[in-house]
Amino acid sequence: MIEEISGVLVPADFKHKKTFRVRFNEVDMLGVCNNVVYIKFFEEGRIQYLKHNHLIPPNGIFSDGSLFYIVRNVINYRGLSRYDDEVDVFNRVSFIKHSSYGFEHLIINNTTGETIADGSGVIVRVDPATGKSTPLDEKFYEVIQSFEPNVKILK
Fold first, then answer.
1. Residue at 1 is within a domain
2. Model pTM?
3. In terms of DSSP bridges, do strands 86-96 and 152-153 run parallel, antiparallel, or are they unpaired?
4. Which of 2, 27, 74, 134 is the most exposed, fewest CB within 10 Å of its CB?
């Protein structure tokens, strides 16, 4: 079962936010932020969300031998941003299953207040030896449920 974004997302739906400034190398010849950059903002938002919730190992990402694969990225483009615009990227875990979990994202242009994009992603924990999905740790469920009381648990 793949979770889709349900309804219209607004900043109040989220507890985590990361702010970015659109850099010169991220705009195209029309002066707008290239669409692939928003996926990068989603990714960095996910990492910062996990850091905020102390779910990155103390010695850094990948240091504990755990592997996580992004198996799905969905993005809906709603507006645009330009060089030097500041954008807020809102992130939340929307569901947790046995070995996977889903994020939802919202990007708001601080210059215009416009919704730039929304989207979602699915991450799967993988056993490095077998390459197969493996259960998430109970700590993951506990931490996320504490931070996101409305997260759907679909074990």
1. no
2. 0.89
3. parallel
4. 2
Beta strands in 1-155 (DSSP E): 16-21, 67-77, 86-96, 100-109, 115-126, 152-153
Residues 6 or more apart in contact with residue 93 via CB below 8 angstroms: 49, 101, 102, 103, 144, 148, 151
How confident is the model over 70-97, as pLDDT tens digits?
999 999 999 999 999 999 999 999 999 9
Domain CATH for 120: 3.10.129.10
Give dist(CA 72, CA 55) in Å, integer.
21
C-alpha distance from residue 12 to each of 9, 15, 106 (Å) = 8, 8, 11
Structural domain contains residue 83: yes
Cβ atoms within 10 Å of 120's Cβ, excluding its own: 22
> Based on the structure, what is the number of domains in the chain?
1
Tokens for 155?
């074990």
Phi-psi region of 84 (alpha: psi -120 to 50; beta: other; left: phi over 0): left
* HSE (side-chain half, CA atoms, 13 Å) at 85: 25
